[in-house]
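Re: weekly structure request thread

Next one in the queue (375 aa):
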Amino acid sequence: MEKREKLKDFGFDLEAYEKAKDYELDSLIISIGSSIVSLVALVLFLWFGTKPLYNFLSGSLGNVWAVRVCYILVFAIGFFLLDLPSGWLSFRIEHKYELSNQDPVGWLIDEVKGMLINLVLALAGFILLFWALDVTQFWWFWAWIAFTAISIFIGFISPTLLMPLFYEFEPLEEEELKTRLKDLANRARLEVLGVFNMEASEKTKKAIGALTGIGSSRRIILSDTMLENYSTEEIEAVIAHEMGHHKHHDIWFSIGVQSLFSLMGFYLISTFIDPVLGFLSLELNVSALPVVLGMMELILFVTSPVKNWLSRVRERAADGFSLSLIDNPRALGEALVKLSQQNLGNPAPPRLVEFLFYDHPSGLNRVERAFEHDA
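Done, posted below.
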């Protein structure tokens, strides 16, 4: 009861709070179910599929690089098709809770676009991995270098090449808001390429405000769903938070943390993969790809609470930057209340759930801090 009263005192709608909890639970059930299905499929493929597929491709193609490319394509497309049902359920959940405006055809087109992008990245990454396996016993180190380089490359090209594949972007026409956001960037001493309106309402009712990109690709992005429902001060507060991430070099920090865990993961895989492959009667060739991925997923799952904790620390620091930069700190709290309710984020999850799964502090704690800062 105390939690509900506190939410009400800070402006949260209690009906939206109950709806957000149901949405979170439904999404979690689908996510867990999808993970279980993927794990079972991976184990079955390891026992009954990977070796016959490798032998068939080797006998049919002969050339080791052709075998590797074809194996990666078959494996990636197969698991994409396996994941489609859970993706469809997630799509239906978004409609059930009135968060999506997208039709099934549009959803499927986006799924295929995502698959094609992932195929290109998978081919680049795994071909480099198996090349390293051929030439050095320190393949895990070079695999880590390739993984980090690809992560940086994606961060650089995402706002200019990848995001426009899914959304239309136009320069923001509202001169007053554009001027105020550019002034905000000057006060934060950040160089911003421009301010863009993202046409998101054709697909979602969720509000999005971000400062994306690295270096010269950095740009402010505001969804039309945010522009329609938030005041200028609230938008400033959201973007000031995003600027805090860039001032604190959080993109590089995030890449560094991910890179560190990946280095540890690749090293552990190189240490334990031989006995695992021996148990499965496999050799260290492309047929071992599911083993490498399964071991990496296990390592990333075990370390995810640490990464989430680090992320929450950085998010709290970005909130602090916003509160110190904007003229009206209360606007951040008001924006967070709106975002929580419009996007159906649970503002007050159980502490254990927040610790294990949340990469942001709870909405209630963030709003309370903003309002106290304004007092």
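The longest helix spans residues 289-325. The longest strand covers residues 195-199.
Next request, please.
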